[in-house]
Model the fold of this input.
Amino acid sequence: MATGDSPDEGSASRYNPPMHSTTAPPLVRCRAEGLDTIDADMLCAPVFLHGDAPDADDDGHNLGPLDLALGGALRRARASGECTGKLHERFLTDVIDTTWRTRRVLLVGAGPRDRYDTAVARAVAATAGMAARERAVTRLVVWCPPRCQAPGITQAVVEGVLLGAFRDTRFKTRDTGTPPLRELTVALNGSVEQQDQTDAERGAIVAECSNLARELANEPGNLFTPRVFADRAIELVNGPRTTVEILDEAAIASQGMGLLQGVAQGSDEPPRVIVMRYEPEDAVPGPVLALVGKGVTFDTGGISIKPAAAMDLMKRDMAGGAAVLCAMRAIGQLAPPIRVIGIVPAAENMPDGRAIRPGDVLTAANGMSVEVLNTDAEGRLLLADALTLAQRLGATHLVDIATLTGAVVIALGHHASGLVGVPPAWVDTVRSAADATGEPVWPLPALDAYATQLKSETADLANIGGRAAGAVTAAMFLKAFSGGLPWAHLDIAGTAWYEEASPSHPKGASGVGVRMLTELA
Ligand code: BES
Ligand code: MN
Ligand code: ZN
Done:
Protein backbone atom coordinates (compact mmCIF):
# COMPACT_ATOMS: atom_id res chain seq x y z
CA MET A 1 0.00 0.00 0.00
CA ALA A 2 1.22 3.48 -0.74
CA THR A 3 1.16 5.68 2.30
CA GLY A 4 2.66 9.12 2.59
CA ASP A 5 2.45 12.40 4.38
CA SER A 6 -0.04 14.97 3.29
CA PRO A 7 1.82 18.20 2.63
CA ASP A 8 0.00 20.09 5.37
CA GLU A 9 0.75 17.56 8.08
CA GLY A 10 2.89 18.73 11.00
CA SER A 11 5.92 20.87 10.22
CA ALA A 12 5.69 20.00 6.53
CA SER A 13 3.55 23.11 6.16
CA ARG A 14 6.78 25.15 6.45
CA TYR A 15 7.86 23.96 3.04
CA ASN A 16 7.24 25.04 -0.47
CA PRO A 17 5.48 22.55 -2.70
CA PRO A 18 7.80 19.84 -4.05
CA MET A 19 9.55 20.64 -7.30
CA HIS A 20 8.47 18.21 -9.94
CA SER A 21 10.12 17.45 -13.20
CA THR A 22 8.72 19.97 -15.62
CA THR A 23 9.71 18.28 -18.85
CA ALA A 24 7.93 15.31 -20.36
CA PRO A 25 10.36 12.80 -21.91
CA PRO A 26 10.52 13.10 -25.70
CA LEU A 27 8.81 10.81 -28.17
CA VAL A 28 11.41 8.25 -29.30
CA ARG A 29 11.11 6.15 -32.46
CA CYS A 30 13.15 4.30 -35.07
CA ARG A 31 12.76 4.93 -38.80
CA ALA A 32 14.38 3.38 -41.85
CA GLU A 33 13.15 5.65 -44.66
CA GLY A 34 15.45 7.83 -46.69
CA LEU A 35 17.08 10.56 -44.62
CA ASP A 36 15.65 13.15 -46.98
CA THR A 37 12.09 12.24 -45.95
CA ILE A 38 12.54 12.70 -42.19
CA ASP A 39 11.26 16.04 -40.96
CA ALA A 40 13.34 17.34 -38.06
CA ASP A 41 15.32 20.41 -36.98
CA MET A 42 18.71 18.73 -37.10
CA LEU A 43 20.30 15.45 -38.17
CA CYS A 44 23.37 14.07 -36.39
CA ALA A 45 25.77 11.39 -37.59
CA PRO A 46 29.06 10.05 -36.25
CA VAL A 47 32.25 10.58 -38.22
CA PHE A 48 35.44 8.62 -37.56
CA LEU A 49 39.05 9.68 -37.42
CA HIS A 50 40.41 10.64 -40.80
CA GLY A 51 42.28 7.89 -42.61
CA ASP A 52 41.04 5.23 -40.24
CA ALA A 53 39.17 3.10 -42.70
CA PRO A 54 40.97 2.70 -46.01
CA ASP A 55 38.24 0.35 -47.24
CA ALA A 56 35.51 2.95 -46.77
CA ASP A 57 35.30 6.59 -47.67
CA ASP A 58 37.70 8.78 -45.80
CA ASP A 59 34.99 9.52 -43.25
CA GLY A 60 35.31 5.96 -41.95
CA HIS A 61 31.94 4.86 -43.24
CA ASN A 62 30.38 5.83 -46.46
CA LEU A 63 28.90 9.25 -45.76
CA GLY A 64 29.24 10.11 -49.46
CA PRO A 65 25.49 10.08 -50.16
CA LEU A 66 24.92 12.37 -47.19
CA ASP A 67 27.71 14.65 -48.37
CA LEU A 68 25.91 15.05 -51.71
CA ALA A 69 23.03 16.64 -49.82
CA LEU A 70 25.58 18.84 -48.05
CA GLY A 71 27.00 20.01 -51.34
CA GLY A 72 30.39 18.44 -50.53
CA ALA A 73 30.83 20.40 -47.29
CA LEU A 74 31.99 17.31 -45.43
CA ARG A 75 34.65 16.47 -48.00
CA ARG A 76 35.92 20.05 -47.93
CA ALA A 77 35.94 20.13 -44.12
CA ARG A 78 37.86 16.86 -44.13
CA ALA A 79 40.40 18.28 -46.53
CA SER A 80 40.83 21.55 -44.64
CA GLY A 81 41.18 19.82 -41.26
CA GLU A 82 38.02 21.37 -39.84
CA CYS A 83 36.41 17.95 -39.45
CA THR A 84 38.91 15.34 -38.23
CA GLY A 85 36.66 12.82 -36.49
CA LYS A 86 38.26 13.39 -33.09
CA LEU A 87 35.93 12.21 -30.32
CA HIS A 88 33.23 14.79 -29.51
CA GLU A 89 34.35 17.21 -32.24
CA ARG A 90 31.39 19.04 -33.81
CA PHE A 91 30.96 20.11 -37.43
CA LEU A 92 27.67 21.82 -38.20
CA THR A 93 26.61 22.53 -41.76
CA ASP A 94 23.52 23.25 -43.86
CA VAL A 95 21.72 20.85 -46.15
CA ILE A 96 21.99 22.16 -49.74
CA ASP A 97 19.64 19.66 -51.38
CA THR A 98 16.29 21.48 -51.34
CA THR A 99 14.29 18.23 -51.43
CA TRP A 100 15.44 17.41 -47.87
CA ARG A 101 13.05 18.29 -45.08
CA THR A 102 15.72 18.52 -42.36
CA ARG A 103 17.87 21.57 -43.07
CA ARG A 104 20.85 21.20 -40.72
CA VAL A 105 23.40 18.44 -40.15
CA LEU A 106 25.78 18.02 -37.23
CA LEU A 107 28.65 15.59 -37.65
CA VAL A 108 30.05 14.44 -34.32
CA GLY A 109 33.57 13.03 -34.04
CA ALA A 110 33.53 9.39 -32.96
CA GLY A 111 37.27 8.70 -32.64
CA PRO A 112 39.02 5.65 -34.07
CA ARG A 113 36.84 3.37 -36.18
CA ASP A 114 37.98 0.18 -34.39
CA ARG A 115 37.11 1.52 -30.95
CA TYR A 116 33.47 2.26 -31.70
CA ASP A 117 31.28 0.40 -29.19
CA THR A 118 28.18 1.10 -27.10
CA ALA A 119 30.13 3.34 -24.72
CA VAL A 120 31.45 5.49 -27.60
CA ALA A 121 28.03 5.50 -29.27
CA ARG A 122 26.47 6.74 -26.00
CA ALA A 123 29.13 9.44 -25.58
CA VAL A 124 28.82 10.63 -29.19
CA ALA A 125 25.04 10.69 -28.90
CA ALA A 126 25.33 12.69 -25.68
CA THR A 127 27.29 15.34 -27.57
CA ALA A 128 24.48 15.36 -30.14
CA GLY A 129 21.93 15.73 -27.34
CA MET A 130 23.85 18.61 -25.78
CA ALA A 131 24.22 20.35 -29.13
CA ALA A 132 20.51 19.93 -29.81
CA ARG A 133 19.66 21.49 -26.47
CA GLU A 134 22.06 24.41 -26.97
CA ARG A 135 20.60 25.12 -30.39
CA ALA A 136 16.95 24.92 -29.34
CA VAL A 137 16.49 21.85 -31.53
CA THR A 138 13.32 20.12 -30.37
CA ARG A 139 13.14 17.47 -33.11
CA LEU A 140 16.40 15.55 -33.57
CA VAL A 141 17.36 12.69 -35.90
CA VAL A 142 20.41 10.59 -35.15
CA TRP A 143 21.56 8.53 -38.08
CA CYS A 144 23.29 5.19 -37.42
CA PRO A 145 25.21 4.56 -40.66
CA PRO A 146 25.27 0.88 -41.73
CA ARG A 147 28.73 0.24 -40.31
CA CYS A 148 27.60 1.55 -36.90
CA GLN A 149 24.60 -0.71 -36.54
CA ALA A 150 25.29 -3.46 -33.98
CA PRO A 151 23.49 -4.99 -30.99
CA GLY A 152 23.03 -2.47 -28.19
CA ILE A 153 23.89 0.57 -30.31
CA THR A 154 20.32 1.84 -30.69
CA GLN A 155 19.75 1.71 -26.94
CA ALA A 156 23.06 3.45 -26.26
CA VAL A 157 22.27 6.18 -28.80
CA VAL A 158 18.88 6.90 -27.24
CA GLU A 159 20.39 6.93 -23.74
CA GLY A 160 23.18 9.25 -24.83
CA VAL A 161 20.92 11.78 -26.54
CA LEU A 162 18.45 11.98 -23.64
CA LEU A 163 21.19 12.21 -21.02
CA GLY A 164 23.03 14.87 -23.04
CA ALA A 165 19.90 16.94 -23.64
CA PHE A 166 19.13 17.06 -19.91
CA ARG A 167 18.98 20.52 -18.31
CA ASP A 168 17.75 21.29 -14.84
CA THR A 169 16.23 24.77 -14.86
CA ARG A 170 13.52 24.11 -12.27
CA PHE A 171 14.87 26.67 -9.86
CA LYS A 172 15.38 29.43 -12.42
CA THR A 173 12.47 31.78 -12.67
CA ARG A 174 13.97 34.24 -15.18
CA ASP A 175 16.45 32.52 -17.48
CA THR A 176 14.91 29.15 -18.23
CA GLY A 177 17.08 28.56 -21.32
CA THR A 178 16.26 26.59 -24.45
CA PRO A 179 13.23 24.32 -24.84
CA PRO A 180 13.54 20.58 -24.11
CA LEU A 181 13.80 17.93 -26.80
CA ARG A 182 10.35 16.77 -27.95
CA GLU A 183 11.13 14.16 -30.60
CA LEU A 184 14.06 11.83 -31.16
CA THR A 185 14.26 9.68 -34.27
CA VAL A 186 16.94 7.03 -34.68
CA ALA A 187 17.45 6.58 -38.40
CA LEU A 188 18.43 3.03 -39.29
CA ASN A 189 19.18 1.34 -42.59
CA GLY A 190 17.25 -1.44 -44.30
CA SER A 191 14.21 -1.94 -42.10
CA VAL A 192 13.16 -1.34 -38.50
CA GLU A 193 12.90 -4.64 -36.61
CA GLN A 194 10.89 -5.20 -33.45
CA GLN A 195 14.23 -5.50 -31.63
CA ASP A 196 15.22 -1.97 -32.69
CA GLN A 197 12.01 -0.54 -31.29
CA THR A 198 12.48 -2.50 -28.03
CA ASP A 199 16.08 -1.27 -27.76
CA ALA A 200 14.98 2.33 -28.30
CA GLU A 201 12.28 2.00 -25.65
CA ARG A 202 14.72 0.48 -23.17
CA GLY A 203 17.12 3.35 -23.79
CA ALA A 204 14.33 5.89 -23.28
CA ILE A 205 13.20 4.31 -20.00
CA VAL A 206 16.69 4.00 -18.57
CA ALA A 207 17.65 7.54 -19.59
CA GLU A 208 14.43 9.07 -18.32
CA CYS A 209 14.95 7.34 -14.96
CA SER A 210 18.59 8.50 -14.82
CA ASN A 211 17.45 12.06 -15.51
CA LEU A 212 14.84 11.79 -12.74
CA ALA A 213 17.58 10.64 -10.36
CA ARG A 214 19.63 13.67 -11.40
CA GLU A 215 16.68 15.93 -10.63
CA LEU A 216 16.15 14.38 -7.22
CA ALA A 217 19.83 14.78 -6.33
CA ASN A 218 19.87 18.38 -7.57
CA GLU A 219 17.05 19.39 -5.26
CA PRO A 220 18.13 21.49 -2.28
CA GLY A 221 17.92 20.20 1.28
CA ASN A 222 15.23 22.68 2.34
CA LEU A 223 12.81 21.41 -0.30
CA PHE A 224 13.83 17.77 -0.39
CA THR A 225 13.38 16.25 3.05
CA PRO A 226 12.90 12.58 4.01
CA ARG A 227 9.12 13.02 3.84
CA VAL A 228 9.32 14.61 0.40
CA PHE A 229 11.60 11.76 -0.68
CA ALA A 230 8.90 9.32 0.45
CA ASP A 231 6.21 11.21 -1.44
CA ARG A 232 8.35 11.13 -4.57
CA ALA A 233 8.73 7.36 -4.27
CA ILE A 234 4.96 6.94 -4.16
CA GLU A 235 4.55 9.22 -7.14
CA LEU A 236 7.38 7.79 -9.28
CA VAL A 237 7.54 4.10 -8.38
CA ASN A 238 4.04 2.92 -7.48
CA GLY A 239 2.73 0.95 -10.44
CA PRO A 240 1.07 -2.22 -11.68
CA ARG A 241 3.91 -4.49 -10.55
CA THR A 242 5.52 -2.31 -7.90
CA THR A 243 4.29 -1.26 -4.46
CA VAL A 244 5.64 1.44 -2.19
CA GLU A 245 5.40 1.35 1.59
CA ILE A 246 6.67 4.13 3.83
CA LEU A 247 7.89 3.42 7.35
CA ASP A 248 7.31 6.42 9.62
CA GLU A 249 8.90 7.05 13.03
CA ALA A 250 6.63 4.50 14.75
CA ALA A 251 7.32 1.79 12.18
CA ILE A 252 11.05 2.56 12.32
CA ALA A 253 10.94 2.20 16.10
CA SER A 254 9.10 -1.09 15.91
CA GLN A 255 11.77 -2.42 13.55
CA GLY A 256 14.33 -1.45 16.19
CA MET A 257 16.32 0.66 13.73
CA GLY A 258 18.33 2.45 16.42
CA LEU A 259 21.17 3.47 14.10
CA LEU A 260 18.81 5.26 11.72
CA GLN A 261 16.99 6.86 14.67
CA GLY A 262 20.34 8.02 16.04
CA VAL A 263 21.26 9.76 12.79
CA ALA A 264 17.83 11.40 12.51
CA GLN A 265 17.44 12.58 16.10
CA GLY A 266 19.34 15.85 15.61
CA SER A 267 16.92 17.04 12.95
CA ASP A 268 13.43 18.53 13.15
CA GLU A 269 12.66 16.51 10.03
CA PRO A 270 11.51 13.00 10.90
CA PRO A 271 13.16 10.05 9.13
CA ARG A 272 11.41 7.74 6.70
CA VAL A 273 12.25 4.35 5.28
CA ILE A 274 11.03 3.85 1.73
CA VAL A 275 10.32 0.22 0.89
CA MET A 276 9.61 -0.56 -2.76
CA ARG A 277 8.69 -4.06 -3.85
CA TYR A 278 8.71 -5.27 -7.44
CA GLU A 279 7.01 -8.68 -7.67
CA PRO A 280 6.32 -9.89 -11.21
CA GLU A 281 4.02 -12.85 -11.72
CA ASP A 282 6.66 -14.63 -13.80
CA ALA A 283 9.40 -14.22 -11.18
CA VAL A 284 12.03 -16.93 -11.12
CA PRO A 285 11.77 -18.82 -7.82
CA GLY A 286 14.62 -18.26 -5.40
CA PRO A 287 16.55 -15.03 -5.70
CA VAL A 288 15.28 -11.78 -4.21
CA LEU A 289 17.52 -8.86 -5.07
CA ALA A 290 17.64 -6.02 -2.54
CA LEU A 291 18.85 -2.58 -3.60
CA VAL A 292 19.62 -0.32 -0.66
CA GLY A 293 20.41 3.38 -1.23
CA LYS A 294 21.69 6.01 1.19
CA GLY A 295 19.08 8.74 1.56
CA VAL A 296 20.69 11.46 3.66
CA THR A 297 18.81 14.49 2.37
CA PHE A 298 21.42 16.81 3.88
CA ASP A 299 24.65 15.91 5.65
CA THR A 300 26.04 18.67 7.86
CA GLY A 301 28.21 16.08 9.61
CA GLY A 302 26.13 16.50 12.79
CA ILE A 303 28.07 17.40 15.97
CA SER A 304 31.27 16.32 14.12
CA ILE A 305 30.34 19.17 11.82
CA LYS A 306 31.80 19.59 8.34
CA PRO A 307 33.75 22.68 7.27
CA ALA A 308 31.70 25.36 5.50
CA ALA A 309 33.48 25.09 2.13
CA ALA A 310 31.34 23.17 -0.35
CA MET A 311 28.96 21.94 2.35
CA ASP A 312 26.14 22.92 -0.01
CA LEU A 313 27.00 19.88 -2.10
CA MET A 314 25.91 17.65 0.77
CA LYS A 315 22.38 18.02 -0.58
CA ARG A 316 23.56 15.28 -2.93
CA ASP A 317 24.05 12.81 -0.07
CA MET A 318 20.86 11.04 -1.12
CA ALA A 319 22.11 10.24 -4.63
CA GLY A 320 22.35 6.52 -3.80
CA GLY A 321 18.76 6.56 -2.60
CA ALA A 322 17.69 8.43 -5.73
CA ALA A 323 19.46 5.80 -7.85
CA VAL A 324 17.57 3.01 -6.08
CA LEU A 325 14.24 4.82 -6.36
CA CYS A 326 14.70 5.50 -10.07
CA ALA A 327 16.11 2.03 -10.79
CA MET A 328 12.95 0.60 -9.18
CA ARG A 329 10.89 2.79 -11.52
CA ALA A 330 12.87 1.53 -14.53
CA ILE A 331 12.61 -2.08 -13.35
CA GLY A 332 8.84 -1.73 -12.97
CA GLN A 333 8.64 -0.56 -16.58
CA LEU A 334 11.08 -3.06 -18.08
CA ALA A 335 9.57 -5.97 -16.13
CA PRO A 336 12.47 -8.43 -15.69
CA PRO A 337 11.41 -11.83 -14.25
CA ILE A 338 13.01 -11.39 -10.82
CA ARG A 339 11.76 -10.11 -7.50
CA VAL A 340 13.45 -6.89 -6.38
CA ILE A 341 13.16 -4.92 -3.15
CA GLY A 342 14.34 -1.31 -3.02
CA ILE A 343 15.02 0.26 0.37
CA VAL A 344 15.93 3.88 1.03
CA PRO A 345 16.61 4.89 4.63
CA ALA A 346 16.08 8.65 4.55
CA ALA A 347 17.17 11.12 7.23
CA GLU A 348 18.81 14.49 7.69
CA ASN A 349 22.11 14.69 9.61
CA MET A 350 22.02 17.84 11.75
CA PRO A 351 23.74 19.18 14.88
CA ASP A 352 21.26 20.02 17.64
CA GLY A 353 20.63 19.73 21.36
CA ARG A 354 19.18 16.30 20.76
CA ALA A 355 21.76 15.16 18.21
CA ILE A 356 23.96 12.14 18.84
CA ARG A 357 27.38 12.93 20.34
CA PRO A 358 30.73 11.35 19.57
CA GLY A 359 31.04 8.44 22.00
CA ASP A 360 27.32 7.66 22.05
CA VAL A 361 26.36 4.01 21.84
CA LEU A 362 23.42 2.99 19.65
CA THR A 363 21.67 -0.35 19.20
CA ALA A 364 21.28 -1.57 15.64
CA ALA A 365 18.23 -3.36 14.26
CA ASN A 366 20.19 -6.63 14.33
CA GLY A 367 20.96 -6.14 18.03
CA MET A 368 24.60 -5.11 17.71
CA SER A 369 25.88 -2.15 19.69
CA VAL A 370 27.72 0.61 17.81
CA GLU A 371 29.90 3.31 19.27
CA VAL A 372 29.54 6.50 17.23
CA LEU A 373 33.03 7.98 17.27
CA ASN A 374 32.24 10.44 14.48
CA THR A 375 28.71 11.63 13.75
CA ASP A 376 29.76 12.45 10.17
CA ALA A 377 30.09 8.73 9.44
CA GLU A 378 26.29 8.59 9.38
CA GLY A 379 25.65 6.87 6.06
CA ARG A 380 26.95 3.51 7.21
CA LEU A 381 24.70 3.75 10.29
CA LEU A 382 21.41 4.10 8.48
CA LEU A 383 22.48 1.71 5.71
CA ALA A 384 23.36 -0.96 8.29
CA ASP A 385 19.80 -0.95 9.63
CA ALA A 386 18.41 -0.95 6.10
CA LEU A 387 20.50 -4.04 5.28
CA THR A 388 18.98 -5.77 8.31
CA LEU A 389 15.50 -4.76 7.12
CA ALA A 390 16.28 -6.16 3.65
CA GLN A 391 17.02 -9.54 5.24
CA ARG A 392 13.78 -9.44 7.24
CA LEU A 393 11.90 -8.79 3.99
CA GLY A 394 13.41 -11.90 2.41
CA ALA A 395 16.35 -10.62 0.38
CA THR A 396 18.82 -13.23 -0.83
CA HIS A 397 21.27 -10.89 -2.59
CA LEU A 398 22.26 -7.43 -1.36
CA VAL A 399 23.58 -4.36 -3.17
CA ASP A 400 23.97 -1.02 -1.46
CA ILE A 401 24.81 2.26 -3.13
CA ALA A 402 25.91 5.37 -1.29
CA THR A 403 27.84 8.63 -1.36
CA LEU A 404 29.68 7.10 1.56
CA THR A 405 33.23 8.35 1.87
CA GLY A 406 35.55 11.17 0.85
CA ALA A 407 38.21 8.45 0.90
CA VAL A 408 36.83 6.80 -2.25
CA VAL A 409 37.32 10.11 -4.07
CA ILE A 410 40.98 10.03 -3.04
CA ALA A 411 41.29 6.40 -4.14
CA LEU A 412 39.43 6.48 -7.47
CA GLY A 413 38.63 10.10 -8.30
CA HIS A 414 35.57 10.86 -10.40
CA HIS A 415 35.72 8.26 -13.14
CA ALA A 416 34.84 5.03 -11.33
CA SER A 417 32.69 4.11 -8.33
CA GLY A 418 34.23 1.95 -5.61
CA LEU A 419 33.01 -1.65 -5.38
CA VAL A 420 33.50 -3.85 -2.33
CA GLY A 421 31.73 -7.13 -1.62
CA VAL A 422 31.65 -10.88 -1.10
CA PRO A 423 31.74 -13.47 -2.54
CA PRO A 424 33.88 -12.65 -5.60
CA ALA A 425 31.33 -14.17 -8.00
CA TRP A 426 28.64 -11.73 -6.81
CA VAL A 427 31.07 -8.81 -7.03
CA ASP A 428 31.90 -9.87 -10.60
CA THR A 429 28.19 -10.00 -11.49
CA VAL A 430 27.70 -6.45 -10.25
CA ARG A 431 30.85 -5.29 -11.99
CA SER A 432 29.81 -6.77 -15.35
CA ALA A 433 26.40 -5.10 -15.11
CA ALA A 434 28.04 -1.77 -14.36
CA ASP A 435 30.60 -2.07 -17.15
CA ALA A 436 27.93 -2.99 -19.68
CA THR A 437 26.04 0.24 -18.99
CA GLY A 438 29.01 2.59 -19.16
CA GLU A 439 28.99 3.32 -15.42
CA PRO A 440 32.48 2.11 -14.50
CA VAL A 441 33.21 0.61 -11.08
CA TRP A 442 36.52 -0.57 -9.65
CA PRO A 443 37.02 -3.18 -6.95
CA LEU A 444 38.58 -2.49 -3.55
CA PRO A 445 39.60 -5.39 -1.29
CA ALA A 446 37.11 -6.85 1.21
CA LEU A 447 39.88 -8.42 3.33
CA ASP A 448 38.82 -9.30 6.89
CA ALA A 449 42.01 -7.66 8.18
CA TYR A 450 40.49 -4.22 7.48
CA ALA A 451 37.61 -4.97 9.85
CA THR A 452 40.01 -4.92 12.82
CA GLN A 453 40.20 -1.13 12.36
CA LEU A 454 36.55 -0.94 13.50
CA LYS A 455 37.15 -2.37 16.98
CA SER A 456 35.52 -0.37 19.76
CA GLU A 457 36.67 -0.21 23.41
CA THR A 458 33.07 0.08 24.51
CA ALA A 459 30.67 -1.47 22.01
CA ASP A 460 30.62 -4.31 19.47
CA LEU A 461 31.77 -2.03 16.68
CA ALA A 462 32.95 1.56 16.14
CA ASN A 463 31.58 3.56 13.22
CA ILE A 464 34.99 4.76 11.98
CA GLY A 465 38.23 2.96 11.29
CA GLY A 466 40.83 5.71 11.05
CA ARG A 467 42.29 7.45 8.03
CA ALA A 468 43.84 4.42 6.36
CA ALA A 469 41.68 2.79 3.67
CA GLY A 470 38.61 4.80 4.67
CA ALA A 471 36.51 3.56 1.76
CA VAL A 472 37.24 -0.05 2.65
CA THR A 473 36.63 0.24 6.40
CA ALA A 474 33.29 1.97 5.71
CA ALA A 475 32.39 -1.02 3.53
CA MET A 476 33.56 -3.48 6.20
CA PHE A 477 31.20 -1.78 8.65
CA LEU A 478 28.32 -2.53 6.27
CA LYS A 479 29.53 -6.09 5.73
CA ALA A 480 28.99 -6.69 9.46
CA PHE A 481 25.26 -6.18 8.79
CA SER A 482 24.98 -8.25 5.62
CA GLY A 483 24.01 -11.44 7.46
CA GLY A 484 26.44 -13.53 5.40
CA LEU A 485 24.42 -12.99 2.20
CA PRO A 486 26.07 -12.16 -1.11
CA TRP A 487 26.60 -8.43 -0.72
CA ALA A 488 28.11 -5.69 -2.87
CA HIS A 489 28.66 -2.09 -1.88
CA LEU A 490 29.00 0.77 -4.37
CA ASP A 491 30.60 3.99 -3.12
CA ILE A 492 29.51 6.76 -5.49
CA ALA A 493 30.89 9.75 -3.54
CA GLY A 494 33.18 10.57 -6.49
CA THR A 495 30.80 9.79 -9.34
CA ALA A 496 27.40 11.09 -8.21
CA TRP A 497 28.21 14.63 -9.27
CA TYR A 498 29.93 16.18 -12.26
CA GLU A 499 32.03 19.06 -10.94
CA GLU A 500 32.32 20.45 -14.46
CA ALA A 501 30.39 20.12 -17.69
CA SER A 502 32.08 17.96 -20.36
CA PRO A 503 31.35 17.36 -24.06
CA SER A 504 28.91 14.65 -22.98
CA HIS A 505 27.24 15.89 -19.82
CA PRO A 506 26.11 19.07 -18.08
CA LYS A 507 27.40 20.02 -14.64
CA GLY A 508 25.46 18.63 -11.67
CA ALA A 509 24.09 15.30 -10.47
CA SER A 510 25.10 12.41 -12.75
CA GLY A 511 22.30 9.95 -12.02
CA VAL A 512 24.96 7.25 -11.56
CA GLY A 513 23.67 3.86 -10.47
CA VAL A 514 20.31 3.82 -12.22
CA ARG A 515 21.69 2.14 -15.32
CA MET A 516 23.84 -0.41 -13.53
CA LEU A 517 21.21 -1.41 -10.97
CA THR A 518 18.56 -1.74 -13.67
CA GLU A 519 20.92 -3.86 -15.77
CA LEU A 520 21.74 -6.02 -12.76
CA ALA A 521 18.06 -6.78 -12.19
N1 BES B 1 28.49 12.05 2.80
C1 BES B 1 29.83 11.92 3.27
C2 BES B 1 30.79 11.40 2.21
C3 BES B 1 31.05 12.29 1.02
C4 BES B 1 32.18 13.06 0.97
C5 BES B 1 30.21 12.28 -0.08
C6 BES B 1 32.44 13.84 -0.14
C7 BES B 1 30.47 13.07 -1.18
C8 BES B 1 31.59 13.84 -1.22
C9 BES B 1 29.87 10.96 4.44
O1 BES B 1 28.74 10.92 5.23
C10 BES B 1 30.99 11.38 5.29
O2 BES B 1 30.92 12.45 5.83
N2 BES B 1 32.02 10.55 5.41
C11 BES B 1 33.16 10.85 6.20
C12 BES B 1 33.54 9.62 6.98
C13 BES B 1 34.58 9.87 8.01
C14 BES B 1 34.04 10.72 9.13
C15 BES B 1 35.06 8.53 8.55
C16 BES B 1 34.29 11.26 5.26
O3 BES B 1 34.43 10.65 4.20
O4 BES B 1 34.99 12.22 5.58
MN1 MN C 1 28.77 12.41 6.74
ZN1 ZN D 1 26.99 11.47 4.37
About this structure: The chain has 14 helices and 20 strands.
